[in-house]
């Protein structure tokens, strides 16, 4: 029954000739190039997150402002994802990935040389654009590397490397911070970026290109819509009500103009035609809520461990690492299952486990041992690793052939939109409450439970 449901779902996007995939050494080389670029993007995000307390201290910035080191990257990434996914369909997904890796390399140098929070924030924003080039076409490339019947394996392997990157990030960050200053978390990007650039040039497959001309006005409106709304909401979260309201209002006006402009376009930058497909919409919504939950935990937890549990920098990274280990392990385990069982089963169970792990962390006493923190974090990470691959597969197979770029872009928008929303909520809670640590964990629990409920009911909501 489950196999039949999955097969019916896959017919929406299956084109045997277009999605024939690669085999043997070609697949290994191409997937290695994709995963190395992905690792570059994820690793840097995870390392920067662990270094936030040190950056805030060294640059004399309050914690609520230092979070912009993460937010600037995410907001620039989110704002540019859909235009770059659309542009990638025209210039080629492989070329777009190479552009992103090169930009990431250059901006890593800018981050390392920054002398104040403003310089670092601007460099991180440009780095976010480079990350968007990579992430906007990441799953689209996987769609062409793996044949349709094995797509779940490719997406799970993608999720495995996300987990590895997030797992290595805190560990590497803790090691770097124990022997050097925070700029070195950006200097270590250079050898990885150079290796990724070489592999991408030689191994990534050439994919069919869209013949539709680039939509420059639509791209500008899309970037303005995301950026103004994100900056405006951040201002409101920090209590800057007048500029926050003005920027939020400007962002909403840009969204209205964008949606009017897009009507009737064959391949709109914001793929409202794909969102009209209810399976696609629900999968994106579940992904969004899952990442709201994860970032309420990931962004707030270093401060929680430092202020509430009184752990040092090196210990903080090691206590967050079990989350990413759980994500990586379960992403590997769920690979074959994602092609056999529907997301309404696997993703729902994953988010339920994640919410339970967050709940157990929420209930911890302040004198909890490192082991008690670590196994609860591992449980939440295992749930998140179970949730991601089936839900990502559901997004990709709900889109028709020829719309791989738009679907890949929306998958990343759901992820980054959730992460950015989670980070903004953390900033708001840190501004409003003197000790918001456990409030963030409570919010993460609720967001994960909500996502699990929608995922569990997606079969009925589609009908």
From TrEMBL:
Please give, as recorded in its UniProt entry, the membrane topology of this protein.
Multi-pass membrane protein
- Record keywords, A-Z: Cell membrane, Membrane, Transmembrane, Transmembrane helix, Transport
**Major location, coarse class?**
membrane
Q: Which residues cross the membrane?
A: 33-55, 67-87, 99-118, 124-146, 155-178, 184-204, 216-235, 241-259, 280-303, 315-334, 341-364, 436-457
The places in or outside the cell where this protein is found are:
Cell membrane
| SUPFAM superfamilies according to UniProt | MFS general substrate transporter (SSF103473)
Question: Entry's InterPro entries?
Answer: MFS (IPR011701), MFS_dom (IPR020846), MFS_trans_sf (IPR036259)
At the top level of its lineage, which domain of life is listed?
Answer: Bacteria
Q: Which CDD domains match?
A: MFS_MMR_MDR_like (cd17321)
Q: Where is the Major facilitator superfamily (MFS) profile domain?
A: 30-460
Q: What is one Pfam family matched by this protein?
A: MFS_1
Protein name in UniProt? Transporter
**Organism, scientific name:** Gluconobacter thailandicus NBRC 3257
Lineage, uppermost ranks: Bacteria, Pseudomonadati, Pseudomonadota, Alphaproteobacteria, Acetobacterales
